[in-house]
Protein 1
Amino acid sequence: MFGRESSYECLTFLAASTNANLRAINDIAFKAFSSTMPTKTPLDRPVGQASARATSLMSNSLYLSHRWMSAYSKMSFVRFHRGVTLKILLTPIFLFITLSAVACSVGAEAPPPSPTPVSSPDRSGNEVDAELKTFLAAIDNEVASIRGVEVPPQVPFRFLNDQEMKEYVGSQIEEPEFRESLETSEALLSMLGLISPGTDLTAVYEDLLGTELLGAYDFEIQEFVIRDPDGTFDASEELTYAHEYVHRLQDAKFGIKRLIESTAANDDAALALTALIEGDATRTQVIYGRKNFVYGELLIQGATSDSVDETSLEVPYVLQQSLVFPYVAGVKFAVRLADEGGNGIINTAFRNPPISTEQIIHPDKYLEGELPIEVTLDTDLFGEGWNVVAQDTLGEFTLQVWLEAHGWESQGRLPGSVGWGGDTYIQFENPERGENGVAMLIAWDDPASDSKEFVLELADLLGESEQFTRLQHENNWMAVFDGPDGVFIVGRAEHPTLGFVAAVVVAPTQQLADDVFDRVVS
């Protein structure tokens, strides 16, 4: 078990390491964890990762890991926009690279034993030999012990080469419901200036998952799939399997499908649940890695991994951060809970899941039971000819990403999204005219100051954006822009029941935008 203080520092470090100086990161990480955990004899793993190139690889591995971490958009999570679930829980490249770059391990950096690869599946029937079965069973027992739960009945697992993994991913996202949901998301994100008009999200996701997915647990059919490009079960596959096996434990104990279905009407709650699921798995995987790998071993594996590939498509910032969030923020959340009460309080969280990304970002709000403010809007805001295509919640995380995507930087201060109390938005379309619109209402913990900070910050950022042209600015409380998909209004007003609120409206004309804004805040 991690020590209380150092464990949180370690995983906070994982979340912040992308843009930091790598030499300083390495020094901080190693000093922080050089004495936090007693050395433990690893599993009798028939796998080793060192080679005669160990010394030179060690000198280059942090640079290589940073290059890969800089492309950390290459990952995925259980739920996508508009409530569509892929039905699989995933291990992205990011998790293994993070473990490789930081390791959070103890002991000397001496090279581990020479590799003794174990064969994986027989490709003709995807059978696993007895030696590997024994090894996987040992991982099952170790991971279940770390997580503090009983080993459930075994489920099937498949090892796929690169092409087979791409085909597997393609089969997961080809359903019409999934593609339709992404089309709806494309319209919303374009109106908010979060993606360029014409961005094909289906192609982006297919490219990301097809090239960068290490493994998955399919909770619908209870099956593992692991990327294994060369037919040998090495450290990458071992850590991937350890992560995915946590999902098997979660599913057997708590029922993943039921949990996910409970968030069908709220994307923010769904993302919070995903952060709990992936954070728990990542925390357990990190502990497993620290127990069974030495620091240098993970670095060498990160430097020599041939699983990393460059995607062919540019990944919008909002997708990068949305895909990273469940792992980075989720593991910090899981560690914070574990610091309070170990595995027991994490089990409690699965029985009473977080219902907002605010609770994930600020774990104390979850522990204190702070719930979102209920916010509602009428579905006829845009009038005759306009249909509702989506009604949901953005949440604190998405508001923060929205600000960051348009240039917000911390510079020692918190984003205007902090203080989020609750929100709702309704997305409209006029099929006859081929037009889209959105209306959004945001409530705040401190209505007077929080609403002001958010509106002024967003308006200032949009004023500097190439995507938006300012049309007018009224009394510092309303800004009107010509945006990518129509007239964009962001403003602050006093709501009859919520106090001061922030409101956002996008409509094809300024007259309609003005009318809708008045209805939203009244």
Note: The longest strand covers residues 420-430.
Protein 2
Amino acid sequence: MRKYCILIFICFIFGINQLYAQENPLERKISLSANNQATKDVLKQIEQKTDVKFSYNSEIINTDKKINIVVQNTKVKDCLDKIFNKSIKYSVTGNYIILFEDKQINQAKKNKWIIAGTIANIKNGEKIENVSVFYTAKTTTRLSNELGYYSLPIVSNEKSIALNFSKSGFNDTIIFVKNKQNSIDVNLYPIEPVKIAEIPKDKYITKAPVLEEKFIPAIIIPQQTVINSENLKHINNKKTFQFSILPTIGTNRNISGIITNNLSINLLAGYSRAVDGIEIGGLFNIVKTNVRGFQFAGLGNIVGGQLKGLQIAGLTNVNLQKTNGIQIAGINNVVWDNVNGAQISSISNITKGNMYGYQFSGFNNYVVQNLEGIQMAGFANITEKTVTGIQLAGIANIGINTVMGSQITFVGNFANSGFKGWQIAGISNITNKKSEGTQLAGMSNIAFEGLKGIQMTSFFNLCGSSVQGVQFSIGNNTSLGEFEGVQISALSNVVLKNAKGMQAGALINFVEGDFTGAQIASCANLCLEDLKAIQFASVINYAKNNNGMQIGILNFCDSSSGISLGLFNRVKHGYHVFELSYNEIIKTNISYKSGTSYFYNIYSAGIQPFGEFAWTFGYGLGSKYIFNKIISTNIDVTRNHLCYDNWWINNPYVFYKSTFSLDIKLYQKLHLTTGFSINFHSAKENNEQTVEFVKSSNHIFFNQNEKSNKLQQFWGGYFIGLRI
């Protein structure tokens, strides 16, 4: 039994030794500490603590090199990596670890060196700062400092390499450097400025800013990367894929500004020369030149060149050159050049050049030059030049130059230069210069230059120069220039210069210049120059020169070659005569004749102060024919009321008188007049007292006929008087 136990114990010990012997010596754990000790001494410590043996060629491995190392419970392999800095390979045979040279690593170290030097201006010897020293084979670059000094790491086994020295304002220089050459100084030739004739700037175009100087790029992009992209802009490298966290922290490092990517992924933000494909950014995508394809950014896309494709951003899209495609942004889209496509945002779309397509915005759309397409905004659409298409806004549409199309808004439309098309507004339409088309507004239409078409509003129409067409307004029509057409207003029509057509206003029509047509108003018509038409008002008409007809209660003019019909008519430079006369019925009569000599109004009154009391008043029309400076004739027709013994209150005696008179000038304005009259009276009821009074007054009585209580009288009369 004892023999079996001893045999089992021996087998166990042998098995343990075999297991330990089979374990990889590189995987054994060790703890040690060495301070400035030779490498061979440290290796002996490892041999003692791990029961391994090292085998190496001392001519290849420098074991006299002093090292410092501290490890705790660390694998032998990891410990050796620290000692030899991963420049040695390991091979295990039993309990032996063989150390030999890693030719690839050591060869790379042999092929690595640093080249340095200074860069100066060849003309004046001044050192040049911020020169890009570019090793094209490895896309490695460095910038010279303020003293013109540069230092560039090189890895190459070539006999010579090419270095590119580039600086904006200097000629690019390529220098070939020998392998292991550590120092080289470079002189650059400055570029002489070329004078170019100044091209007149379009006042509507603002020069696009430098991409890297804008707010976001200036913060995100390191200055070294910006300088390199400018110095090396003649170089355009292309890559299928790039990934970056931030500009310079990615696969393209600090030369990202000279690389065109097909697929670009930016975890936070990226910067590249161009994109030809797809770019996706967590926050911002910044592209120095052009984008062709698709861009998506959590916050914004900023492109310094042209866009052809689709841009989507949670905050903003900013393009500094032409855009052909679609921009979609949570806040706004900005293009410093022309847009051919669509801009869609919740706040605003801004285009510094021409807009060909569609703009949709929750707040406003702004185009610095021309618009051909559709603008839709919750607040305002603004186009500084010509609008060809449709503008729709909740507040206002503004075309600074010409609008050729339609403007539709709940508040106002404005076209500064001219308008051709439709304007529809809930409040007002305004055209600063020529307008052709139709304006419809809930409150007012204003065209400062001219309108050819129709203005319709519930309150106010105004045309600053001329109107050729129709104006309809419940409130007022005002034309500050020439007018040809029809004005209809519930309140008033006003034309401050010449006008042709018809004015119809519920209250007043006003023309400052000449008017040819018809003025119709419930209150007044005013024409401050020549009237060559008809004025009809229930109250008053005024024309400086009446060459047509005035019909109203009160008619006034300075001069007249036409006709004024009303209760009172006055021509300032016309026919004004006061007449004192005696006739067959009333012995004392006075009358006033006002108008023109060929057509005037007569206002008369008379009284019988002696004997049986009676009095008369009347109104009529007359005309004068002048033979020469002394003799003339008058023909007057009047309607007269005879008031006798208060009978006129209930049943006045009304008769009509036609008078033919001879006028003889006595002295200056004093004239003698005499003639005869034909009188007629007709009444349903017989007023015996008045009839008897008339009979007793008339010496010549031609006819009296009484039938069915109806009285008719017809007689001849006479008169004599003085006129002044």
Note: The helical segments are 2-22, 39-50, 76-84, 103-110, 215-220, 223-231, 647-650, 688-697.
Protein 3
Amino acid sequence: MRKIILIFIFIPLFVNSQVSWNMNLLGSFPFPTTKCNDIWGWVDTNENEFALLGLRNGVSCVDVTIPSTPVEMFFISDVYSTWRDIKTFGNFAYVTTESDAGLLIIDLSDMTGNTYYHVKDFVNPITGIVLHWEAAHDLFIDEFGICYIFGASNPNIFPQPPNGVIFLDLVSDPINPIHLGQWNEHYVHDGMARADTMYLGCIYDGSFQVVDVSDKANPSTIGQAYTPDLFTHNAWVSDDGNYVFTTDEKPNAFIGAYDISDLNNIYEVDRIQSNPGSSSIPHNTFVDGNFLITSYYRDGTTVHDITYPNYMIQVGSYDSYLGSGNGFDGCWGTYPFLPSGNIISSDINSFNGQGILNVYGRDFRQACYLTGEITDCFTNTPISNVNIQILNTNILELSNLNGEYQTAVVDSGLYEIVFSSIGYENDTIIINLEHGILDSLNLYMCPPCSSLNLSTNNTYDICSGDSVIIGPNSYFSSGIYIDTLSSISGCDSIITTNLTVSPSHSFFQQINICYGDVFTIAQNSYNTSGTYYDTLNSVSFCDSIVITQLTVSQPGAILTFNPPMLNMLANGGTPPYNYELNGPGGFNYYMQNTNGIQSVNPAFSGIYTFYAIDSAGCTSNIVTYSIEMQTNIFEYNEIQRPTIFYDILGRRVDFFDKLMYRP
């Protein structure tokens, strides 16, 4: 059934009576014969947007794709109830009520509204036990298809079910949910879950509870905190999971913000009221990115910027109810998650005492933030309780005990900010604030001139080449100087400066070390050749420059064999060199102050070792060469005699003398 209601006569009267701020009314759909309760949104595969409204006499589905002309797609009549709550999963809507209708399941793929089911019995597939319940205050469905039933009950003829949280699995069979478990430490009025963590509003305990539900058969409470007015209606977690925002359903109650990054140390970081002193009652709040969208009964739909949860600021609202103050009238619920960005809200009785659906557009933006520290200009100590007033607004903040402050405005632009505190001169700053930007402004505040000592004597000891700057003047010679300056507070100050200039020194040195050694000066160590500059304190504590020209000597040794000669060569390091060659049979060759190749005729087979020492006393690497001498062996007897050898002068040399010959 599609129903379009034309209300051209009534809408102008309705619109003119409302108060809006950074929100605009795009369209409305009234329910002239009944009142509304909660609301949820749904989007089909064609991106059409729908509002699902709980009514006292049933459930309505309204197409809000074109918000200026909402169209009711179907209405399902159901048992009368003041309370009705709706959530969706896939193509199904799930509805609870505190009247005994069980769980209403609506197939949204059938937009005639003729396909729906009432389920009251839920089987646990592990235990086989059937859980029967007929009423529940609220429900939530997480991203895994787990339905959380809050505040369940039965007529007196049935056993009472858990009135904390009941876990149902919708994935296996969306129209026959199975029972997985429950958490029943407190009665739960409302809640939500994300990533296997549940956040609960335990209204009669006055707290929100954080529960690990990764094991649905054995949930575990992992954190809790009490809310400002001890009547916790709902709780919603921030997108990053570090904060929880709560409402207390009482007159003049607050929206609370809590840091839950450490579940062992949950603490409140801020609280705010939509209309302080009006006795208005907050109902449900939802986190939508950087914003908190709240149904606030007689204050309508409100929007707070929660970019900085420790400083929430209201940036928009649409008050759809003509009255104000204490009372359960006006806006029951709001849904901010449609892809279009439009916000849909259900009003209990804002249309001639009956219900109405409102579709809002967003004109609100992130606030313009300012933070900083306020410090005494002379002592550098923080100043607490400084009044920070933004002129032409009603914004007035105080600095905390650490001198820190934070403030914000809704609209961007140039602002005059006055900082005032007893015992200090007022200071006025002009600053440009922009949407979504956190500006930082640190301030020094000074006592008035009458309370200051305006004469100062300073003594300085500096080194040659340095200078002392007093106001516009620079001094670099010993002497006494007198300057008259305007202090940071605008007061004249006479500064007397007694200046002593001490000389600085420089020193040059040449250092030679061997490779592998380290030269150390002051705190620095060097092991490669180069020129180094080190700044040291002299006796007068003035800088002295030590210039070190460092040479690292690294001689090398080369040993080659060019039969019959063994050749030695040294390079690198600092010539001349001392050569030393050692070999088998006690062979030793030593030569001083030499350069270039030196050759010897080895006498025996074996390993020869060579190294060199340069003139800086640095020893080269040690090199070796293995020589195998070619030897002829003759058979010797009485008939044969050894071969006769002759030297280069034609002299006869005995065979054994030949073997013993050494150059």
Note: The chain has a mean pLDDT of 89.
